[in-house]
Amino acid sequence: xxxxxxxxxxxxxxxxxxxxxxxxxxxxxxxxxxxxxxxxxxxxxxxxxxxxxxxxxxxxxxxxxxxxxxxxxxxxxxxxxxxxxxxxxxxxxxxxxxxxxxxxxxxxxxxxxxxxxxxxxxxxxxxxxxxxxxxxxxxxxxxxxxxxxxxxxxxxxxxx
Length: 160
Known about the structure:
Elements: E1 2-11, H1 21-25, H2 27-36, E2 40-43, E3 62-69, H3 72-80, H4 84-88, H5 91-94, E4 95-96, E5 104-109, H6 117-130
Antiparallel strand pairs: 1-3, 1-4, 1-5, 2-3
C-alpha cells in the first residue's frame, strides 16, 4: 500500500499579490524536491508546463496539495527533514487557518492506484465528519494499512 495525502490551505492574499511572491517563486524548487525524493510516487499538478500553477478545484480560495508516497516515513522525511520544513514554518505568512476542522488527511491506497481529487476531498470530508479512522486519518491519529480490513475505499454515500 502507498500513503496518499491531501492538504488544503486558505490563501491570505490573491496568488498574484506581492505578499505571495516568496511562496510562488519557490513552488518549483519545493515541488522538485518532493519529486526527487526516493519515497515520492506522484503529485497532482496544476500544469505540466507551468511549475508554479496551483491545482484547479471548486473549493474557493484554497491551495491544494495532493500527493502519494511509499510510506509514512517517506512523507514525514520530506515534510519535516528536508528544505520543505523552512517553508512550512512560514505558512502563516501565506495561509490562514481555515477553521472547519482538519485541513489535511492521510489514507492508504493500493500501489498503482491514483484516486481522483474528488476522492481526496471526500476523504477530508470523511475525516471532518467522523474523526480519524482507518479510511481517513492524520499524523497525530495515524492508522496502519493493516487496520483497513477488507476495503480501502470509502463507503458509498447514502442516496439523498
